[in-house]
Amino acid sequence: DKEQEKAAEALDIGSSLECRVLGYNYLEGALILTRRAYDLQEDTLVSLTELSPGQLVVGTVSRITEFGVFVKLSEYVSGLVHLRHLTDVPLASVSKRIQVDSKLKCRVLRITPEKRQLSLTAKKSLVKDDFQLTAFEQARRDMLVTGFVSNVQSYGAIVSFYDQMFGLLPAKEMELDEAPALGMAVKVRITNVNRKRQRLALSLDLASGKSPEELGATPSAGSGARLKH
Length: 229
Prior knowledge:
This protein is mainly beta. It has three helices and 13 strands. The two termini are 28 Å apart.
């Protein structure tokens, strides 16, 4: 179009331009670049690799399905908030309060770049929490952390956090009246850290627990906010 022709005429061989990498064409061995003003803004996401597990984001609901909602973070990046992750206590269906084009604050659960998949959570307990357990190196005995029940077996419940982090809530803990059900957000205390096997044991008994700050845990690098869309 005329704008593209005008932009092309303004280019000179050897001149310097501010651009941003959108991708790579392996067939032609060339980078795909953009000079569009929107793309050059610091808070514009152009790739999943710019996000980190635990990061706070705000997007626009673009599609509602039976299994959750799709949230658009930019023209290039969208993610899925599964039905279980819309509320602290999972609902049978998407709440009518959530509508297409409404804003939704979430945290990044996990990223799968090779499949171009982004999983998000909108659970208030996770969104509002100041600490996100994203790496085993952060874990400390007696640390209080917030996660969600991702699986329930005869030997106990798996409580997941961010990325690939998870721990085991023993079966005896699940017999308590306050035991969480599948999909629920839950605050737990880490009772054992097995660094050799990369395993965490958890408990619902929070009495002797301490905050991550008290135990000198380092926040995840990507836990900061990207709030503008």
